[in-house]
Fold Transferase.
Amino acid sequence: MNHPITPIMATPTNSAKILELSHVAPYTDSPDSATEFSLPLTFFDTLWFKFPPVERLFFYSLPETKDSFFNAVLPKLNHSLSLTLRYFLPLAGTLTWPRDSPKPVILYTPGETVSVAIAESDADFDLLAGNHARQAAISGPLVPLLRVSETGASVVALQITVFPNSGFCIGVTTHHAVLDGKSTTMFMKSWAYLCKENPPLLPELIPFYDRSIIKDPSGVDMCCLNQWLGNSETTTSSTIRNNPKLFEFSPILDVPSDLFRATFELSRSDIDKLRQRVLSSWDKSSSSPKPKLHLSSFVLTFAYVLDCILKATDGDETKRKVYTAFTADYRSRLEPPVPGNYFGNCVGGKIIDEELREKLSHLGGEGGEEEEGLTALAEKISGMVKELEKGIDASREAEETLSKLLSIVSEKAYAVGVAGSPRFGVYSIDFGWGRPKKVDIVSAEKTGAISMAESRDGSGGLEVGLALKKHQMDLFASLFLAGLRKF
């Protein structure tokens, strides 16, 4: 396994130029596209109501000239997008709050479209689509923006950027109150499938829209909305609806201008070695009785990366408090289970509300103690994962998760969360010109999260993306590589 080296110093400016702004409508031969379509938000959705948009970049190697791309590739992408949108009408709609609705809804009306910016870039395609560290800001021109007003917000925005004779990038920005990572991936897989194959769409890629399957007898959906707005639980829906900043996104984290982004890989062998390290340290610990640890690839990768982050940022002059969190797909965990092709949010948040620096400050040192920090983190994350199997009160958890998250933000701390999932299979998304060279969740830097995906080569490893200041990234890379080489 080739691991990335420490960050490079020089990074060219990405001067992407918008050539046109098109608007793609759902394919018109579908009867559904001629009628209004509305979806109410559930508590799973309002949990993320003002969370910053999720920004993903899909890079594809394609040595086409600019003319051949515009004449052959782009028309196929646009047509297949239109075919896909007839199944995904909410993506062409708006998150809004009609006067006759008790809560916000996703509303599609005939004639609405998805904004697709077409751009050209002279930046280094291989640098942007590589693993080596580069300034995080250079990805900005590839990211489309959602439209937000006092009356609503768009659900998705797309940008297709061509790098002549090198490849192209599809930038996807989604509203987190409308769809989670699994729903976004289902949309991208559907688009790719219809770009390669003729309709109809595969059954597992057709979205399931029935919101009655999500039970919320206590009205947690509105409680979450009130939390985001800082309102009391007695605030009326009409008062909330008239808030001019209702649809604005909340800033979660101040993003330094000197951030560097990089991707680090863990092979299956690396993960197996981490498992043995943790088990050996766990067996030597004095705690008794010892619970059995859940040491999945996710748990071990998250614990190892988090351990390296804490060490790499320990000398940070701001000494910002650090917490950790991740989300889990609840579709199969609810009673009754929700279909795997459910469209919307169906994830719950798990937060360790103990400040990690303080908890781990007494750990580390020489010899066997060196593994204690990693083991302690693995134990904590393992415990959170095991809680998912004990039965879930999803609505109560949503309210508590948001309360903890907003409390962390208010004390200017941050939660190192996880964006994406190795289970999404993002590297299988092939539009007909091969698998992605790289998939990045560039919005993760705005929330302090790391991104996680399966290894591109399908070997069972994982890749992790993160953004740190230059000196922190250098130290992180050194710690990450040194820790793996020891074994």
About this structure: Residues 259-486 form a domain with the Chloramphenicol Acetyltransferase fold (CATH 3.30.559.10). The first strand starts at residue 17 and ends at 24.
